[in-house]
Amino acid sequence: MKKNNFKIIELKPKKNKNSIKRSVFIKDFIIEEIIGIHEHEKVKKQKIKFNVIIDVEQNTVPNEKNIKSIIDYEKITNKLKNLAKSKKYNFLETLAEDSFREIFEDKRINSVKIKIEKPDAIKNAGSVGVEVFKTRKDYEGS
Fold first, then answer.
1. What is the mean pLDDT of the chain?
2. String of b and e for 54-89 (b: at least 16 CB within 10 Å)?
3. In 1-142, which ranges are continuous DSSP H helix?
4. Which pTM was predicted?
């Protein structure tokens, strides 16, 4: 009779040296621009509401004397506003994709969740829109 010699080992998850998580968010940022595929949407500006959550590289430390040491949410809101103003979008989905391009220009950004809504587009609905999440890997792979 042959004996099985088993060795019991304990698997421990790797400890993450960095447990800090920093996110920058923009909540209910509203602009008014022409957006939509229907004829009535092409002549009258409508509200576009953005909610953005940005996961920031954790190895960066804010420096009170240098705005470049942080993710500047004013700069991001300006980019979003300029995007919607510069191009007549038919779809919120296309605006979201272009928004990712602008936001991921900053290499310190790991991931982004964008929710874009048209609050007045559908009668009897609080809002309609699109929500997309991308990591830097998703973005650079597309």
1. 89
2. bbbeeeeeeeeeeeeebbeeeebeebbeebbeeeeb
3. 73-86, 92-103, 136-141
4. 0.81
Q: In what order do the strands lie in the sheet with 109-118?
A: 22-33, 46-56, 109-118, 128-135
35 token code pair: 């957006």
DSSP state of 4: P
Q: Assess whether pLDDT exceeds 70 at residue 14.
A: no
Q: Which two tokens stand for residue 133?
A: 């999440």
Phi, psi of 45 (to 5 degrees): -65, 145
Distance CA 30, CA 25 (A): 14
Averaged pLDDT, 41-55 = 95
Q: 22-60+67-141 belongs to which CATH class? A: alpha beta
Distance CA 34, CA 44 (A): 6
Residue 73's pLDDT is: 93
Cα–Cα distance for residue pair 62/22, rounded to 1 Å: 11
Domain ranges, ordered by start, for the chain: 22-60+67-141
CA-based torsion, 130, 131, 137, 139: positive or negative: positive
